[in-house]
Amino acid sequence: MTLSKPQAKHTHNAITGSLQPSTVVKQACAGVFLCFSLTLVLFPINGYAASKEDLKGVSAEISRQKSSISGQQKKLNELQSELKNHEVSISKLGQEINHTEQELRKVQGNLIN
User: Fold this and answer.
1) Angle, CA 64 vertex, CA 60 and CA 65 arms, to 5°
2) Using a CB cutoff of 8 Å and minimum separation of 24, what contacts does 47-55 make?
């Protein structure tokens, strides 16, 4: 007794509307190919859209930080200007104190003599 491989029917049954196995396989492969193609096409687009949104978020954060830095730089410049004014005032007061001390020594010297 010899065993033979099962043979697939390659005929179309007009009454039941069944397709030949080779046609079913071709349609299944076409469906898989279509899904695969759509996956390749749609995921990069979604990835691009997500990347674009991420870039917008990063850009907004950079703008916010630039604005913050600009405000901090303005405050720093104001504080440096204030510091310079105070240093000039301290220097003038130091000169006035030195002049007053010299005058005091003269007056004390005149009182002793």
Assistant:
1) 120
2) none
Q: Are 15 and 25 in contact (CB under 8 A)?
A: no
Give the side-chain half-sphere CA count within 13 A for 46.
6
d(CA 69, CA 73): 6
User: Which amino acid, one-letter code, is at 96?
Assistant: E
Taking the CA atoms of the chain, what radius of gyration do you get in angstroms? 46
- Helices in 1-113 by DSSP H: which ranges? 21-112
* 3-class DSSP state of 18: strand
How far apart CA 85 and CA 81 sit, in angstroms, is 6
pTM: 0.46
Percent of the chain with pLDDT over 90: 44
**pLDDT of 64 strictly over 90:** yes
Instruction: For residue 25, give the amino acid letter.
Output: V
